Amino acid sequence: MEPEKFVDERYPLSEVTGRIIGAAHNVHNGLGPGFQEVIYQRALALECDQQGLDFEREVEIPVYYRDALVGKKRVDFIIEGVMVEIKAKSAFDDADFIQTLSYLKASEYKIGLLLNFGAKKLEIKRFAN
């Protein structure tokens, strides 16, 4: 898929998120819905490699309360400085949005993407911190 199709200058890091969304569309178009989340994680990692996108999988983010470390959460990907959470379910629900926004707020990242590969059509939600 053409990444330029997903670039919207109203959003920070739009060129990068456009490339990530394009890669996610390639995965969704190739596999379709119905697989476990880990299958889409592995496929997205392969697609990021193919597209020349720098990424890390399963990145731990520290969670602080009143300057004290109270735990860690693991995000699915950091791709070119964008936090990416993926799902494989029939549709997003409020818990998905809350989780992604909480992870983004706990991190130093400014932009997050929530991608759902389980729906008939790839679902995408952008978040800004």
Structure in a nutshell:
This protein is of the alpha+beta class. The protein contains three helices and five strands.
Q: Radius of gyration over alpha carbons?
A: 14 Å
User: Can you write the helix and strand succession as a string?
Assistant: HHEEEHEE
Strand order of the largest sheet: 1-2-3-4-5
Low-confidence stretches: none
**Which sheet architecture does the biggest sheet show?**
5 strands, mixed
Helix content: 25-40%
CATH domain class: Alpha Beta
Alpha-beta content class:
alpha+beta
At CATH level 2, the architecture is 3-Layer(aba) Sandwich
The geometry reads as: globular
End-to-end CA span: 27 Å
Task: Please work out how many helical segments DSSP would assign.
Answer: 3
Mean pLDDT: 91
Strand content: 25-35%
Number of strands: 5
Tally of domains: 1
Protein described:
With 129 residues, the protein is of the alpha+beta class. The protein has one domain (3-128): 3-Layer(aba) Sandwich (Trna Endonuclease, Chain: A, domain 1). 36% of the residues lie in helices and 32% in strands. It is built from 3 helices and 5 strands. The chain has a 5-stranded mixed beta sheet, sandwiched between helices. Helix 1 (14-31) packs across helix 2.
Task: For the structure shown, list the relevant keywords.
129 residues; alpha+beta; Trna Endonuclease, Chain: A, domain 1; 5-stranded mixed β-sheet; 3 helices; 5 strands
